[in-house]
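Tokens for chain A. Residues wanted.
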């Protein structure tokens, strides 16, 4: 038995309300498969800050900030 046949057999046993839920789910799957990712990862050609990502990975920008702003 194929996956498609198993799905059809399972669907035949569902009540009408659940069939509507299944339909919405399948339609959502179809939309997400066709549409491109709405938030693709940034790259240097699409985002000028993309090259900066991770630049401060080692360390903290706010380390000792109070001392710098307000003194000892």
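Reply:
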């Amino acid at each position: 038995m194929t996956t498609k046949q198993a799905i059809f057999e399972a669907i035949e046993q569902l009540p009408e309300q659940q069939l509507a839920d299944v339909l919405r789910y399948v339609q959502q799957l179809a939309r997400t498969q066709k549409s491109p990712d709405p938030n693709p990862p940034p790259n240097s050609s699409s985002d000028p800050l993309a090259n900066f990502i991770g630049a401060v990975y080692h360390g903290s920008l706010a380390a000792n900030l109070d001392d710098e702003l307000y003194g000892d």
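The CA atoms of residues 56 and 62 lie 11 Å apart. The first helix runs from residue 3 to 12.
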